[in-house]
Amino acid sequence: MQLKQVNTEFWVADQITTQDIELIAARGIKTIFCNRPDGEGPDQPNVAEIEQALQPYGIQIQYLPVVSGKVTDEQAEEFKHLYLQAQKPLLAYCRSGTRSITLWALSQVTDQTLEQMLLTARTLGYDLQGVIPRILKQSAHAQEHIPKLSVVIVGGGAAGISVASSLLSRQPNLDIAIIDPAEVHYYQPGWTMVGGGIFKPEKTVRTMASLIPKQVQWIKAAVAAFDPDNKQVLLEGCKPLNYEVLVVCPGLKLNWHGIEGLVETLGKNGVTSNYRYDLAPYTWQLVREMKRGKAVFTQPPMPIKCAGAPQKAMYLSADHWQKQSVLKDIQIDFYNTGAALFGVPAYVPALMEYVKRYNAHLHFNHQLIKVDGRQKRAWFKQLNGESGPIIETDFDMIHVVPPQQAPDFIRASNLVDQAGWVSVDQHTLQHTQYPHIFALGDVMNAPNAKTAAAARKQAPIVAVNVLEYLQGGANFAQYDGYGSCPLTVERGKIVLAEFGYGGKLLPSFPKWLLNGEQPTRLAWLLKEQILPPMYWDGMLKGHEWLVKPKR
């Protein structure tokens, strides 16, 4: 966290955590404004967690969420109204502080000169040039030189960095920019292993600066909007960026607020999730400490990233309890919103053997809708009929997977289908309406599994097709829907599910070497020892091992 003092009564900061509260209180802060919507980042605490941590210090908090780059006049007015009433000094924060200082600037138009605001912001490291037209109400002030690049990639996750590297491996002189405000990059497939006590969390994180290719321009900003008709991306602060080809791959958003009561109890009261970097270690803590009681594992409506992860948490936990000879005293319940244990039938028999081994109780068509951590109760909606009954259960430990959706700035754009996902041709990954746009990873609507393995296969295909488009051709490479889900059924064995569109099995190895339909030690070694370095040193650096594209 970086606290920046704007004046005697107002401070701004980037994302704060509960560990920062003592320092904030020491600065004499009386009120905090949260301008960042919950669920924007995988390591972001929810505002309810911050609020609880503030109570011992008597600091008040106001939740005024603003989608990045979407600061409205109404929000600026609300900010001003709350600002005038709040106890000072006051601290406002978002991901970087940009939204907060923008709200402040728009609310101070009648009280300060434009020069004062711009100078104050610039001194603190914020560029408010993009809001000048709104402040002055004169569009002429926004007519600046707009940079143009051959390829702009939205998102610096697994998909974005891999595409950039694959492009450069084919055309080293290509001018590319990656837009991503995050300072760190996560190997999210490793979080299941963290929750199972196999990986340390530090093994799953590196700095973004160490991973983005040196030849690529890194734009540390959030995307506000798209203007595909003019081949422009609008950055936070309303700064435009021109491109010839746009690649959209910002990942998806975890909707923690989609389950009532969840944000208030995450990370305590036995409520955990391997879908957040800072919570996966708590999963392992709960598993180690549990000797008897009821453990509940949940899966939300599809689509979600890594559809096998909810049950992987169950298997690894049960395996530990079995090895500790306490499984007989622990009841395991798996509540799945879907109607089947796994979407590809070929892998279900092997998984069911482990369900029986661990004596786990399966509940299909049950969607988690509410959690009360203090009372250790959870409520599920039955989906068998139009208005099924609400089922209530107790728990000692519950592993929750939140509903998932495309990021807000994606869903608000004209690039999406009716469900809010970027609309692409499922084979070429080219946008269905704008031929100069391609998408890959979790944010697109192709009917494939949302996994890192899928992105690893998609990245070189998109790279080939982007270059083909730039050269005026249409001989595009084709994506077969490949995705992989290493189902960790016990510590030391994995059912390696590899499949494509329509559930077609697409194994990478001959059956005599690795039978993916059965749990194997070799698949475990692949997951534990081979895939992490293949990710960091292969996929992200443009080495297309086993995924060379075909036209």
From TrEMBL:
InterPro entries: BLH_phosphatase-like (IPR005939), FAD/NAD-bd_sf (IPR036188), FAD/NAD-binding_dom (IPR023753), Prot-tyrosine_phosphatase-like (IPR029021), Sulphide_quinone_reductase (IPR015904). Pfam families: BLH_phosphatase, Pyr_redox_2. CDD domains: PTP-bact (cd14503). It comes from the Bacteria. Residues 3-109 form the Beta-lactamase hydrolase-like protein phosphatase-like domain. Residues 150-269 form the FAD/NAD(P)-binding domain. One of its GO terms (molecular function) is FAD binding. Its cofactor is FAD. Keywords: FAD, Flavoprotein, Oxidoreductase, Quinone, Transit peptide. GO terms for biological process: sulfide oxidation, using sulfide:quinone oxidoreductase. This is TIGR01244 family protein. The lineage of its organism: Bacteria, Pseudomonadati, Pseudomonadota, Gammaproteobacteria, Moraxellales.
